[in-house]
Amino acid sequence: MVGVSTAGQLEATYATSGGANAPLEDGAFNGGGGGSAVWMGGSAIASDQSGRIFFATGNGQIKEDNQNTPASGRVLLDTLSGAVVNMGINASTRKPFQQDYFETYQYLAMDQGDRDLGASSVQLPDPTVFSEGGISRIAIACGKNGIAYIMNADNLGGYKPGPGGSDAIVQTITMPGGGSVFANTGTYPLEGGYLYITPVGYPTQVYSLGFTSAGVPAFTFVG
């Protein structure tokens, strides 16, 4: 990630692969580096407020970057493989810092099968509609594995802190046939709220926004 001012001044850079857990680059970009590219099917990074941006990353190096240990998304992770990342921007220095992340418990298997989470960007729906039950903002990302991940944008979920080492996020939605998603999702904030996802080989899937008995956002397939 590179930050450049409107005057053309380089302000900041940040790499998703670095530190002790990332393999060293060999100088020819053949087998070196840590992977975890930011490409998101050609979609843009997202921001919902000053000093906060989101992006998703692709495959890493098929290794346990986090030692397979459950962790909060607030704990620094050197190599962000197959992750949704929330970066903060220091208002004074303009330097980015890792603020939060979500990495699904399935990320090693996704790496091995070339099933990038980062095939889709991060959608930040209108928080005046897509919120409730203590969740004021949600974030949505999809990947090659044909799963849409609905997260709390203010607490993405870290790495497998859920029951039995599962994900601790708002909801997962499986695409028909496990169809991969290579583009941004779409949302519509009127008439109750809708989510649109187009998996490879299938028509656009439409989901209506609802809420659980606890008031947590929940999407239901409608057409």
Keyword list:
223 residues, 4-stranded antiparallel sheet, 14 strands, 5-stranded mixed sheet, 1 helix, globular, mainly beta, single chain
Polypeptide structure, described:
- The protein has 223 residues and is mostly beta strands.
- Helices cover 3% and strands 30% of the residues.
- The chain has one domain (2-221).
- The strands form four sheets. Strands 3-4-5-6-9 form a five-stranded mixed beta sheet, with no helix packed on it. Strands 11-12-13-14 form a four-stranded antiparallel beta sheet, with no helix packed on it. The protein has a three-stranded antiparallel beta sheet with strand order 7-8-10, with no helix packed on it.
- A hairpin with a 2-residue loop joins β3 (46-49) and β4 (52-56).
- It is globular.
Quick overview of this protein structure:
The protein has 223 residues and is mostly beta strands.
Average pLDDT figure: 88
Give a quick account of the main beta sheet: strands, pairing sense, barrel closure.
Answer: 5 strands, mixed
Class per helix and strand makeup: mainly beta
Order of helices and strands: EEEEEEHEEEEEEEE
Number of helices: 1
Number of domains: 1
